[in-house]
Design a protein that fits this description.
The chain folds into two domains: 48 residues, no CATH class; 48 residues. Strand 1 and strand 2 form a beta hairpin. It is built from four helices and four strands. The longest helix is centred in the middle third of the chain and has 21 residues. It is mainly α.
Length: 132
């Protein structure tokens, strides 16, 4: 007699490249967040705050020089950010292939197959025929 095998979760809405993207608690959501994205967001907020404070400079020429310097500093800081799992997309850019929305797929649990949270993924062709 052969062993019972678990059905694949491949057609689940939460299935993404072998990982389960469903988080059930705020703690689990926080653990799975992309650290690189959070750092970029933090740097961006800090830069925006500094740019707003530049408006207090009286001389427009000084303001423009300081703005350019600040933006260059921000771009350099973003370029220095890294992550051990960072894999740039083949077409280039600042994103990582492991980023899914605000999560890092590497930090999400492996899909165990069909589970209680299984939600069948609908195709657009199926959804198109239904009216809300």
């Amino acid at each position: 007699m052969s062993a019972v095998q678990r059905l694949s979760g491949q057609h689940c809405t939460y299935f993404m490249r072998g990982r389960c993207t469903r988080t059930v608690s705020p703690e689990e959501s926080a653990r799975s967040r992309c650290g690189l994205l959070d750092e970029r967001r933090r740097l961006g907020a800090k830069t925006m705050d500094r740019l707003e404070r530049l408006q207090r400079l009286a001389d427009p020429d000084d303001r423009e020089v300081a703005r350019r310097h600040l933006i260059q500093k921000n771009m350099d800081a973003i370029a220095r950010l890294t992550c051990p799992g960072l894999v740039p997309p083949p077409q280039g850019g600042l994103l990582c292939v492991h980023q899914h929305l605000v999560n890092c797929l590497l930090k999400l649990p492996n899909c165990r197959g069909r589970c209680d949270d299984f939600l069948r993924r609908r195709d657009f062709s199926e959804a198109k025929g239904q009216q809300p």
